[in-house]
């Protein structure tokens, strides 16, 4: 036995025995176990610690929470998350990020296997109208309901209720205009549904056509396949973007 294992064994052997009641770690310390790991030079990496926290978390975790829990800077946590995302690309997991929150989820390509294992039926499909509204929100967020109506040319109350009940969108604020209309944005559920890690992975939005008047999307605006195969068509939104009235 040599190397880190020998150092760890020696550290354990020379450590003075102490009653169990006296072994509690003082507040703020790394703890006896962590000290032994570090003494042996085999401490878990920051990336591994981030992965462990995200694994046990039952909700999206704020970056600030990770920084405080790991006593690390934002740059260190960001680097660990980038490394974790790269490693997960080869596994059945994905790192998802949205509005300063991060979570560890199953990869979209393994969704069919998970659905079969859990006995879930494919009952989450959205209507064409709901998908159209969802794509508009994805690219224009934060956006108000009147703005969505203006882009679609029809009332969107029904589809908005559907999207809200499915957890695809949520209120994110109020516009500082007359009436203070509610602004909406997409959620983590939206990212999961379309199998993307963050809004940065949406296709780039092209310049709107100056003579665009119709807001009827072409076939394939959103390819609705639960499990992460759906695609958001940026061109359909860009072609209609010019018809949106200015705030005021």
Features of this protein?
248 residues; Arc Repressor Mutant, subunit A; 11% strand; alpha+beta; 3 domains
Strand content range: 5-15%
Average pLDDT taken over every residue: 73
Q: SS-based structural class?
A: alpha+beta
Trace the largest sheet across and list its strands. 1-3-2
Order of helices and strands: HHHEHHEEHHEHHEEHH
Sheet with the most strands?
3 strands, antiparallel
- Per CATH, the class of the largest domain reads Mainly Alpha
Provide the domain count: 3
Number of strands: 6
Proper CATH architecture of the largest domain? Orthogonal Bundle
Outline the low-pLDDT stretches: 8-31, 207-248
Overall radius of gyration: 24 Å
**Assigned CATH superfamily of the largest domain:** Winged helix-like DNA-binding domain superfamily/Winged helix DNA-binding domain
Topology:
Elements: H1 4-14, H2 32-39, H3 46-56, E1 61-62, H4 63-70, H5 74-88, E2 93-98, E3 101-106, H6 111-118, H7 128-140, E4 143-144, H8 145-152, H9 157-165, E5 169-174, E6 182-186, H10 188-194, H11 234-240
Antiparallel strand pairs: 1-3, 2-3, 4-6, 5-6
Helix pairs in contact: 3-5, 7-9
């Amino acid at each position: 036995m040599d190397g880190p294992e020998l150092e760890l064994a020696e550290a354990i052997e020379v450590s003075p025995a102490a009653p169990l009641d006296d072994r509690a770690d003082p507040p703020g310390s790394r703890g006896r176990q962590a000290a032994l790991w570090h003494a042996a030079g085999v401490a878990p990496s920051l990336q591994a610690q981030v992965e462990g926290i995200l694994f046990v978390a039952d909700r999206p975790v704020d970056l600030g929470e990770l920084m405080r829990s790991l006593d690390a800077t934002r740059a260190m946590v960001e680097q660990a998350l980038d490394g974790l995302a790269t490693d997960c690309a080869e596994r059945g997991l994905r790192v998802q990020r949205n509005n300063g929150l991060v979570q560890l989820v199953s990869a979209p390509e393994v969704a069919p296997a998970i659905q079969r294992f859990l006995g879930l039926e494919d009952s989450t499909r959205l209507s064409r109208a709901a998908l159209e509204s969802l794509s508009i929100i994805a690219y224009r967020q934060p956006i108000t309901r009147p703005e969505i109506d203006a882009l679609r040319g029809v009332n969107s109350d029904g589809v908005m209720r559907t999207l809200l009940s499915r957890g695809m969108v949520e209120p994110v604020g109020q516009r500082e205009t007359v009436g203070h209309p509610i602004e909406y944005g997409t959620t983590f559920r939206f990212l999961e549904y379309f199998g993307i890690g963050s809004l940065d992975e949406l296709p780039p939005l092209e310049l709107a056509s100056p003579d665009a008047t119709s807001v009827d999307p072409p076939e394939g605006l959103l390819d609705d396949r639960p499990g992460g195969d759906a695609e958001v068509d940026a061109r359909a939104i860009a072609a209609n973007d010019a018809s949106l009235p200015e705030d005021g």
